[in-house]
Amino acid sequence: MTAMSMDVQERAYQALAERLLAHLPEGEPPWMAEARRRAASGLQHLPYPLVEKMNIAAWPWHRLELPTQSEDVRAAADLPADVRHLLDDASPTIVVHRGTGVYRAHTESVEAEGVIVTDLATALSEHAELLRERLFRLVGPEDDRLAALSAAAFRDGVFVYVPRGLRLERPVNLVFVAGEGGLATRTVVVAEPESRLELIETRLSLVRAASDAAPIIHNGVSELFVEDGAHVLFASVNRFGPEVVDHSRRVARVGRDGAIVWAIGEVGHANGMMATQSELRGEGARAEVNMIGVGTGAQRNYFDLRVRHYGRHSESMMLAKGILLDQAQQIYNGVTKIEKKATKASGEQTERLLVLSPEARGDANPILLIEENDVKAGHAASVGRIDELQLYYLMSRGLTREAAEKLLLFAFLDPVIARIPLPGVKARLVEAIEVKLTR
User: Fold this and answer.
1) pLDDT of 399-420, one tens digit each?
2) Beta strands 376-384; 172-178: pairing state
3) Which of 22, 48, 106, 173 is most buried as measured by Cβ atoms within 10 A of its Cβ?
4) pTM, whole model, 2 decimals?
């Protein structure tokens, strides 16, 4: 980026900060307004998240526009068909659709048990103190420039709360739809001690912008609080289109004997930086990270997967697999850090990439940071191509090259898909991969 373009960009961030400060949402608690002011001021001086080998500062994050006031969506029939396809007949559901509004379904069915599934604006009004204890605790308004943009600009989001000892029988379904002008959201999830929760998040865009149109910016941050003995499954499928530039950040704090299981499918067409972090604070805390990424066209993606062990006897397992075609570039950073005093901790990670084009590039960077002696840790990584002998064997049995290649690709991804415990998520992920691999 030249000095002139940097100067233009900084002026754009200054103008954005001024707009954000001039249009703070009305009726929010004072602590919320103050956090937004600090975040907006930080847009002019905070650094970007540390990313190597990819220049995320060149992406036009400052093009995120403030949303206009929209009405709630009362009926599923008023949602686009691509969104209705993601709904079911019983799961508590929140749909956040830029330009249309918020749709809720079946949330009242769990309220009697003390469960809260609501949009963030309602939560700030009805559960302000409960939210104040968590919002911005894991991703603060002054952590870096993209975190500041999230805190200052978000107008939509979701709050999920599960009380002590309750096992929610059906998954919570969250759908985020980016429209013209972009979308900024925050998700806050609280699983009280000994509770059980499954969430399914789908991110998509329905705009079909011209190739020379300005990018649509998505900035989504999720903060998960998994208390002692609680268990949370967070499944996320990204189906953003090529018109989107995406920043998605998820951070979970896990207490004693708690567990967070991530099932992530980055199978859209957006450029972006996606980060998933687990903080194992309590003794016996556990994190499992399962991820699939598929890059096509000229996509540029940076995936940052991190686990930090603080508690004794904490455990983590990370498995990420990626497929790259055409001119796609993807970087997978897997970081396992075991802090001092986290004795008997165990952390394993594996990143495997298949590169199907001479013009595509994939980097797999497994990193172990160990500050304690009495621990177990290991890593593995590879970047390779499809085995031509396997292709030849399948083709000799009557398959076309395209069919044989697709069969081998799904066999490569199957160890990750098999670890996803929700059949609906598996089907949604496989469908998205099928669509993307059909060229």
Assistant:
1) 999 999 999 999 999 999 999 9
2) unpaired
3) 173
4) 0.95
Q: What is the mean pLDDT of the chain?
A: 93
Task: Give the model's confidence band at 210: pLDDT under 50 very low, under 70 low, under 90 confident, else very high.
Answer: low
> Each residue of 338-373: pLDDT tens digit?
999 999 999 999 999 999 999 999 999 999 999 999
Mean pLDDT of 255-270: 97
Q: What is the pLDDT of residue 314?
A: 98
Spatial separation of the C-alpha atoms in residues 157 and 135, rounded to whole Å: 11
Q: Distance (Å, rounded) from C-alpha 384 to C-alpha 75?
A: 48
Given a contact cutoff of 8 angstroms between Cβ atoms, the answer to whether 72 and 101 are in contact is yes
One-letter amino acid at 184 equals A
Supply the pLDDT for residue 180: 86
pLDDT at 9: 84
> Mapping DSSP to helix (H, G, I), strand (E, B) and coil, where does residue 199 land?
strand
Q: Is it the case that residue 159 has pLDDT exceeding 60?
A: yes
Burial pattern 159-179, b for ≥16 Cβ within 10 A else e, equals bbbbeeebebeebbbbbbbbb
DSSP 57: G
Mutual angle of helices 145-153 and 30-42, in 10-degree steps: 140
The span from the CA of 302 to the CA of 273, in Å, is 5
Residue 273, CB-side half-sphere exposure with 13 Å CA sphere: 21
DSSP letters along 329-390, please? Answer: EEEEEEEEEE-TT-TT-EEEEEEEEEE-STT-EEEEEEEEEE--SS-EEEEEEEEE---HHH
26 CB-contact burial (10 Å; exposed 0-12 / middle 13-18 / buried 19+): exposed
User: Residue 439 and residue 430: Cα distance in Å, rounded?
Assistant: 16
Number of CB atoms found within 10 A of residue 426's CB: 17
Q: What is the mean pLDDT of residues 18-38?
A: 94
Q: How far apart are alpha carbons 174 and 260 in whole angstroms? A: 18
Ordered by start, the domain boundaries in the chain are 3-383
Closest among 111, 262, 252 to 198, alpha carbons compared: 262
Three-class HEC string of 220-250: EEEEEEECCCCEEEEEEEEECCCCEEEEEEE
Residue burial 183-212, b: 16+ Cβ < 10 Å; e: rest: bbbbbbbbbbbbbbbbbbbbbbbbbeeeee
135 and 186 in contact (C-beta within 8 Å)?
A: yes
Name the band, by pLDDT with cuts 50, 70 and 90, for residue 4: very low
**CA dihedral defined by 129, 134, 137, 142, rounded to 10 degrees?**
-60
Segment 136-155 mean pLDDT:
96
Q: How far apart are CA 31 and CA 22, in angstroms?
A: 17
φ, ψ dihedrals at 227, nearest 5°: -80, 180
